[in-house]
Amino acid sequence: MTTKKTIKNWRRGWKQKAKQLLNARRVADLPSTFKVWEGPSALTGDPIVVIASCAGADPSANSKTGDMVQIYILPKSTSPGHAWINGAINAVCPDACEHRRDQKGDCYVNWSRLRAAWERGLVAPALPDGYLTDAIVRLGAGGDPSAVPFHVWIKLLDGVKGWSGYTAEWRSLPIHWQRLFMASVATPDQAWEAAAMGWRLYAASLSEADDRAYEAQGVKACLSHAVDLPCVSCRQCDGTDNGANRPSFYIPLHGAIGAKRRREVDNG
After folding, report:
1. Are the beta carbons of 89 and 73 closer than 8 angstroms?
2. Is the pTM of this model over 0.90?
3. For the chain, what is the domain count?
Protein backbone atom coordinates (compact mmCIF):
# COMPACT_ATOMS: atom_id res chain seq x y z
CA MET A 1 0.00 0.00 0.00
CA THR A 2 1.21 3.50 -0.81
CA THR A 3 1.62 5.51 2.37
CA LYS A 4 1.47 9.25 2.90
CA LYS A 5 5.22 9.24 3.57
CA THR A 6 6.07 7.53 0.28
CA ILE A 7 3.76 9.89 -1.58
CA LYS A 8 5.38 12.92 0.02
CA ASN A 9 8.81 11.62 -1.03
CA TRP A 10 7.82 10.21 -4.43
CA ARG A 11 10.54 12.20 -6.19
CA ARG A 12 13.35 10.40 -4.37
CA GLY A 13 12.77 7.03 -6.01
CA TRP A 14 11.53 8.52 -9.26
CA LYS A 15 14.76 10.42 -9.84
CA GLN A 16 16.82 7.24 -9.87
CA LYS A 17 14.51 5.61 -12.44
CA ALA A 18 14.53 8.77 -14.55
CA LYS A 19 18.34 8.81 -14.54
CA GLN A 20 18.43 5.24 -15.81
CA LEU A 21 15.84 5.97 -18.52
CA LEU A 22 17.83 8.95 -19.84
CA ASN A 23 21.22 7.40 -19.14
CA ALA A 24 22.01 10.50 -17.08
CA ARG A 25 25.06 10.49 -14.83
CA ARG A 26 23.69 13.00 -12.31
CA VAL A 27 20.28 13.89 -10.97
CA ALA A 28 21.11 17.49 -11.85
CA ASP A 29 21.15 16.44 -15.52
CA LEU A 30 17.43 15.63 -15.51
CA PRO A 31 15.50 18.27 -17.49
CA SER A 32 13.11 20.31 -15.37
CA THR A 33 10.91 21.19 -18.37
CA PHE A 34 9.92 19.06 -21.32
CA LYS A 35 7.38 19.12 -24.10
CA VAL A 36 4.56 16.59 -23.75
CA TRP A 37 2.65 17.35 -26.95
CA GLU A 38 1.94 20.05 -29.50
CA GLY A 39 -0.78 20.34 -32.09
CA PRO A 40 -4.03 22.09 -32.93
CA SER A 41 -6.32 23.12 -30.09
CA ALA A 42 -9.50 21.05 -29.87
CA LEU A 43 -11.22 24.33 -28.94
CA THR A 44 -10.13 26.66 -31.73
CA GLY A 45 -7.70 24.80 -34.01
CA ASP A 46 -4.87 27.20 -33.13
CA PRO A 47 -1.42 25.75 -32.33
CA ILE A 48 -0.91 24.91 -28.66
CA VAL A 49 1.75 23.16 -26.61
CA VAL A 50 1.61 20.98 -23.49
CA ILE A 51 4.56 21.54 -21.20
CA ALA A 52 5.66 19.64 -18.09
CA SER A 53 7.48 21.76 -15.49
CA CYS A 54 9.07 20.81 -12.16
CA ALA A 55 9.90 17.51 -13.85
CA GLY A 56 13.56 17.35 -12.90
CA ALA A 57 15.51 17.24 -9.69
CA ASP A 58 13.88 20.26 -8.05
CA PRO A 59 10.40 20.04 -6.48
CA SER A 60 7.49 22.34 -7.14
CA ALA A 61 7.22 25.20 -4.64
CA ASN A 62 3.43 25.44 -4.93
CA SER A 63 2.23 25.33 -1.32
CA LYS A 64 -1.35 24.29 -2.15
CA THR A 65 -0.51 21.41 -4.43
CA GLY A 66 2.72 20.36 -2.79
CA ASP A 67 5.39 18.71 -4.92
CA MET A 68 3.68 17.73 -8.16
CA VAL A 69 4.86 17.87 -11.75
CA GLN A 70 2.98 20.87 -13.16
CA ILE A 71 1.40 20.43 -16.60
CA TYR A 72 0.59 23.58 -18.59
CA ILE A 73 -1.60 23.81 -21.70
CA LEU A 74 -0.50 27.01 -23.45
CA PRO A 75 -0.86 28.83 -26.78
CA LYS A 76 2.19 28.22 -28.92
CA SER A 77 2.30 31.43 -30.93
CA THR A 78 2.17 34.02 -28.15
CA SER A 79 3.29 34.23 -24.53
CA PRO A 80 0.71 33.36 -21.85
CA GLY A 81 0.48 36.91 -20.51
CA HIS A 82 -0.17 38.36 -23.95
CA ALA A 83 -2.63 35.56 -24.69
CA TRP A 84 -4.63 36.43 -21.57
CA ILE A 85 -4.90 40.04 -22.69
CA ASN A 86 -5.48 39.69 -26.43
CA GLY A 87 -7.88 36.73 -26.54
CA ALA A 88 -5.44 34.06 -27.73
CA ILE A 89 -6.16 32.33 -24.42
CA ASN A 90 -9.31 31.00 -26.13
CA ALA A 91 -7.16 28.26 -27.63
CA VAL A 92 -6.58 26.73 -24.20
CA CYS A 93 -9.52 28.02 -22.13
CA PRO A 94 -13.06 27.13 -23.26
CA ASP A 95 -15.96 29.56 -23.39
CA ALA A 96 -17.46 27.52 -20.55
CA CYS A 97 -14.81 28.81 -18.14
CA GLU A 98 -16.41 31.68 -16.26
CA HIS A 99 -13.06 32.87 -14.92
CA ARG A 100 -11.71 34.01 -18.30
CA ARG A 101 -10.73 37.64 -18.79
CA ASP A 102 -13.68 38.28 -21.14
CA GLN A 103 -16.07 36.93 -18.51
CA LYS A 104 -15.55 37.32 -14.75
CA GLY A 105 -11.79 37.75 -15.09
CA ASP A 106 -10.99 36.16 -11.71
CA CYS A 107 -8.79 33.27 -12.86
CA TYR A 108 -6.39 32.19 -10.11
CA VAL A 109 -3.60 31.63 -12.66
CA ASN A 110 -1.15 34.51 -13.04
CA TRP A 111 -0.63 34.03 -16.77
CA SER A 112 2.24 36.51 -17.05
CA ARG A 113 4.29 34.40 -14.63
CA LEU A 114 4.16 31.44 -17.02
CA ARG A 115 6.32 33.14 -19.63
CA ALA A 116 9.56 31.43 -18.53
CA ALA A 117 8.00 27.95 -18.53
CA TRP A 118 6.43 28.66 -21.93
CA GLU A 119 9.73 29.83 -23.43
CA ARG A 120 11.57 26.79 -22.09
CA GLY A 121 8.81 24.51 -23.32
CA LEU A 122 9.04 25.76 -26.90
CA VAL A 123 12.59 24.45 -27.17
CA ALA A 124 12.42 21.58 -24.67
CA PRO A 125 12.78 18.07 -26.10
CA ALA A 126 10.12 15.41 -25.91
CA LEU A 127 11.28 12.71 -23.49
CA PRO A 128 10.90 8.94 -23.72
CA ASP A 129 7.63 7.29 -22.76
CA GLY A 130 7.67 6.34 -19.11
CA TYR A 131 9.63 9.35 -17.92
CA LEU A 132 6.86 10.25 -15.43
CA THR A 133 6.36 6.70 -14.15
CA ASP A 134 5.83 6.89 -10.36
CA ALA A 135 5.50 10.70 -10.47
CA ILE A 136 2.49 12.69 -9.24
CA VAL A 137 1.19 15.24 -11.71
CA ARG A 138 -1.19 18.18 -11.90
CA LEU A 139 -3.00 18.45 -15.22
CA GLY A 140 -3.87 22.02 -16.08
CA ALA A 141 -1.73 24.22 -13.85
CA GLY A 142 -2.60 26.64 -16.66
CA GLY A 143 -5.11 25.95 -19.42
CA ASP A 144 -7.95 23.44 -19.68
CA PRO A 145 -7.22 19.79 -20.54
CA SER A 146 -10.17 19.75 -22.97
CA ALA A 147 -8.00 21.62 -25.50
CA VAL A 148 -5.87 18.46 -25.87
CA PRO A 149 -6.83 15.04 -27.27
CA PHE A 150 -7.83 12.55 -24.60
CA HIS A 151 -5.27 9.99 -25.75
CA VAL A 152 -2.47 12.40 -24.80
CA TRP A 153 -3.62 12.33 -21.17
CA ILE A 154 -4.02 8.56 -21.13
CA LYS A 155 -0.47 8.15 -22.36
CA LEU A 156 0.94 10.75 -19.97
CA LEU A 157 -0.73 9.19 -16.92
CA ASP A 158 0.36 5.65 -17.67
CA GLY A 159 2.32 4.51 -14.62
CA VAL A 160 1.99 7.66 -12.49
CA LYS A 161 1.29 7.40 -8.76
CA GLY A 162 -1.48 9.98 -8.89
CA TRP A 163 -2.82 13.11 -10.53
CA SER A 164 -5.29 15.95 -10.30
CA GLY A 165 -7.20 17.50 -13.17
CA TYR A 166 -10.20 19.73 -13.84
CA THR A 167 -12.18 20.85 -16.88
CA ALA A 168 -14.74 23.59 -17.41
CA GLU A 169 -15.86 21.92 -20.64
CA TRP A 170 -17.72 19.16 -18.79
CA ARG A 171 -21.08 19.78 -20.46
CA SER A 172 -19.84 18.82 -23.93
CA LEU A 173 -17.07 16.27 -23.33
CA PRO A 174 -17.67 12.55 -23.93
CA ILE A 175 -18.38 10.49 -20.83
CA HIS A 176 -14.94 8.84 -20.80
CA TRP A 177 -13.38 12.18 -19.76
CA GLN A 178 -15.05 11.68 -16.38
CA ARG A 179 -12.51 8.95 -15.69
CA LEU A 180 -9.60 11.37 -15.38
CA PHE A 181 -11.03 14.81 -14.63
CA MET A 182 -13.25 16.70 -12.23
CA ALA A 183 -15.95 19.04 -13.56
CA SER A 184 -14.90 22.59 -12.74
CA VAL A 185 -18.10 24.38 -11.67
CA ALA A 186 -18.81 27.90 -10.46
CA THR A 187 -22.24 27.72 -8.76
CA PRO A 188 -24.31 25.29 -6.67
CA ASP A 189 -26.75 24.96 -9.59
CA GLN A 190 -23.89 23.88 -11.85
CA ALA A 191 -22.84 21.39 -9.19
CA TRP A 192 -26.27 19.72 -9.34
CA GLU A 193 -26.07 19.63 -13.14
CA ALA A 194 -22.59 18.14 -13.31
CA ALA A 195 -23.35 15.52 -10.66
CA ALA A 196 -26.50 14.50 -12.54
CA MET A 197 -24.34 13.88 -15.61
CA GLY A 198 -22.06 11.55 -13.61
CA TRP A 199 -19.17 13.91 -12.92
CA ARG A 200 -17.33 14.28 -9.69
CA LEU A 201 -16.80 17.99 -9.34
CA TYR A 202 -14.59 20.70 -7.94
CA ALA A 203 -16.41 23.93 -7.24
CA ALA A 204 -15.31 27.52 -6.81
CA SER A 205 -17.36 29.08 -4.03
CA LEU A 206 -18.19 32.77 -4.25
CA SER A 207 -19.57 33.17 -0.73
CA GLU A 208 -20.23 31.56 2.63
CA ALA A 209 -23.81 31.03 1.47
CA ASP A 210 -22.49 29.02 -1.50
CA ASP A 211 -20.32 27.02 0.92
CA ARG A 212 -23.45 25.94 2.79
CA ALA A 213 -25.29 25.18 -0.47
CA TYR A 214 -22.46 22.93 -1.64
CA GLU A 215 -22.33 21.16 1.70
CA ALA A 216 -26.08 20.53 1.51
CA GLN A 217 -25.37 18.63 -1.72
CA GLY A 218 -22.70 16.52 -0.01
CA VAL A 219 -19.82 18.46 -1.57
CA LYS A 220 -16.91 18.59 0.88
CA ALA A 221 -14.54 21.45 1.65
CA CYS A 222 -11.25 21.02 -0.21
CA LEU A 223 -8.78 19.50 2.21
CA SER A 224 -6.03 21.91 1.19
CA HIS A 225 -8.27 24.71 2.47
CA ALA A 226 -9.95 22.91 5.37
CA VAL A 227 -6.99 21.14 6.97
CA ASP A 228 -3.98 22.38 4.96
CA LEU A 229 -3.47 18.99 3.29
CA PRO A 230 -1.62 19.50 -0.01
CA CYS A 231 -2.95 17.95 -3.20
CA VAL A 232 0.05 15.63 -3.46
CA SER A 233 -1.07 13.92 -0.24
CA CYS A 234 -4.83 14.08 -0.90
CA ARG A 235 -4.95 12.88 -4.53
CA GLN A 236 -8.76 12.83 -4.64
CA CYS A 237 -9.30 15.12 -7.65
CA ASP A 238 -8.67 12.38 -10.21
CA GLY A 239 -12.10 11.81 -11.71
CA THR A 240 -13.86 8.47 -11.32
CA ASP A 241 -11.08 6.04 -12.30
CA ASN A 242 -10.13 5.34 -8.70
CA GLY A 243 -13.69 5.33 -7.37
CA ALA A 244 -16.79 7.05 -8.70
CA ASN A 245 -18.53 7.31 -5.33
CA ARG A 246 -15.90 9.42 -3.61
CA PRO A 247 -16.94 12.95 -2.60
CA SER A 248 -16.73 16.09 -4.67
CA PHE A 249 -15.09 19.24 -3.30
CA TYR A 250 -15.44 23.01 -3.16
CA ILE A 251 -12.93 25.73 -2.39
CA PRO A 252 -13.47 29.42 -1.63
CA LEU A 253 -12.76 31.55 -4.68
CA HIS A 254 -9.06 32.38 -4.49
CA GLY A 255 -6.34 34.25 -6.27
CA ALA A 256 -6.01 38.01 -5.82
CA ILE A 257 -9.13 38.95 -7.79
CA GLY A 258 -11.23 35.96 -6.76
CA ALA A 259 -10.57 36.41 -3.05
CA LYS A 260 -11.49 40.09 -3.34
CA ARG A 261 -14.79 39.23 -5.04
CA ARG A 262 -15.65 36.75 -2.31
CA ARG A 263 -14.95 39.30 0.42
CA GLU A 264 -17.18 41.81 -1.34
CA VAL A 265 -20.06 39.34 -1.57
CA ASP A 266 -19.74 38.18 2.04
CA ASN A 267 -19.51 41.73 3.33
CA GLY A 268 -22.56 42.85 1.38
Report:
1. no
2. yes
3. 1
